[in-house]
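In line with agreed milestones, the collection of sequences with tokenised folds has grown. A representative record is reproduced below.
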Amino acid sequence: MKHYPSSRLGWLSPAEVLRYGITGFAAFFLFLMLFAGATGSAGANTPQAESEGELRLVTPNDMTSGGLLLKTKEPGKYIQAPMVATDVDIDVTGPIARAKITQRFENPSDGWVEGVYVFPLPEDSAVDSLRMLIGDRIIEGEIKKKEEARQIYEEAKEAGKRASLIEQQRPNIFTNSVANIGPGETIVVQIEYQQTVRQDENIFSLRFPTVVAPRYNPAPSVHLVDFQPGEKGWGSVSDPVPDRDKITPPVAHPDTGKRNPLTLTLSLDAGFPLGDITSPHHEIALVREDESRAELTLKEGEVPADKDFELTWTPAKTDAPTAALFREELNGEDYVLMMLMPPQSKDASRKTPPREAIFVIDNSGSMAGASMPQAKASLELALQRLTPQDRFNVVRFNHTHETLFPQAVRADKENLDRALKFVRGLEAEGGTEMLGALQRALVSQPADSQYLRQVVFLTDGAVGNEEQLFNTISQQLGTSRLFTVGIGSAPNSFFMSRAAEMGRGTFTHIGEPEQVKERMAQLFTKLENPALTDLTAVWPDGQETEAWPNPLPDLYLGEPIILAARMDDASGTFKLKGTFDGQPWELRLPLAKAAERPGVAKLWARKKIASLEAMRYAGGNWEKLDAAITDVALSHHLVSRLTSLVAVDKTPARPAGEEVTRRDVPLNLPDGWDFEAVFGEQPSPVPMRDAKARSTMPMLAMAAAPVSAEAAEAKAGIALPQTATNAAGLMLSGGLLMLFAAACWMLAFFWRHLAARTQVPAHGRS
């Protein structure tokens, strides 16, 4: 066998040369990947690139109405930033809400464009309808598997056909892509969904999110693997947020003025005499039609899409309805929706068991502004509510996490004073590395079983690695109960509600300082009272029934049971059994009382999809569960993680030879957020002349094609979130250190191997 000389230290076989070469190439290739990721992240943390392409450049003097202008490489020339206008129409009937969302896209440029708009919907919404309006024609959308829908859309775009694609990125984040909007042309896209109304004691509420808050996406990590037995090598890169580009839309600087105008109309038919009707975050114009019905609109007519809309209403009497039962027949099967209020009551004589309360507070950059004072005030109230029989600890987190005490301590005056001083000194800064804090809160379980362990998480939930966090909750929850408190004007309600559900706790939203005392008091009532546990549903004999959620969660004081079921015949008596305060508990309900209501089948399907998704986090068979999710979504015409709605106009519109350019629609920064705390210092943007110019300003929806870094650096006014961390620098530094480590490892390996080759055998010495 031929050998190759290695200086004078020995000889290498061809196999060894090949092995060393592959090892070195793998290390070098990994470095290139990390370097590319670092430079890509650097681009993601700078103002987003815009393609000048075929789009019309303007000067400030050319503007006859309000508009955000983006700088270009040509001095004094700008591109109009994209916008989209949204009209929301919601009908609430009893416990069910049906909403129609109309998004208006207009292209004011001289070229053909594609628009991509990232928008939120309620986390439990069942999206089932898409229509594209072109002139007086309506194109109905069809539900397809996600990959198939994307292929249909891309082929239509390339062929010059107008098309729209609705995709789910998270249960509360969707994207609307609209292809081939012609010069000066308007395209209107309508989607519809339905959801259930939330009930807490005698308060009914409905939230409509209007803006996707910037998400913090943890950096990818590197995993080491063995190239061969006994030898370590470089492995793969794992990304906790593989779709980060799809959930990170650009954000307009607040100094440019608010954008993306929104109107909202709501029709309320409560089904019972109405008491108070309030909107805590928006002023409304309210007209009561009779004792149980009302119509309302936003008092200002239109508002910028920058904070969640919330409506609450109460019955005129003190006692809320104890049950609501609805039925829909579809394809020979009955679908039933039940909202049951267990007849729980507070017992002042009952002694509350001792608790171990672990409070976790988010002090990252996204909490800067109004959110941090709300979170601190909420935590102070929670600490002051503890009794000497309780134990507690406090964990704070941003890009690092810190625990106040080494372990939970007694809630005496000395410890509480120290905790209050710690909380009052917190400031919002840095990234949102939530995983470490969550693990720290769950890792320590009380040795004494007499303590009821409750983890209270106060955060805006502005993260993109939800799946990683859900997996942690599923695997490490133990005997704890997890309660989430959503802080701010646009919290990540999907993460907050799903985390609480998986943690067998509850979700509370605090959007305004005035709500802190009232809503924390509601949470304390739940924390201090026993849960309704071990719930089981008993269906009439002989009925084949599929009910969701499955299994049923624990329930707390004042919470309703929302159960959706599919059965052959909705008749007989339904029973719900459980344990309350150590005693057996049972509720009976005749199914014949169900009222006919369209849409119940879709709500059942949406609850089934949510339950199947939760099973994936618990370690179920992913392929089997994904197949089941796809099947139910296609059968009920619903958008899901695996299905999308696509609408295509069969007639080509864009002339051959004309190119289409892409530009993402910038979003508002959520109300109360601090731009610099989230994105760092940005160049001064060009302001809007009129922040409320919907009647005279075109509604734009365009997205830019990729351009050079030089062009990106020449613009201002739009940023992508960095949450006050230098991710690019950290990744680049890490890549250089890894390359250095790889070089050292290879040098040591070569030296050890070649030294062994040149060693003289002992028996050969003279």
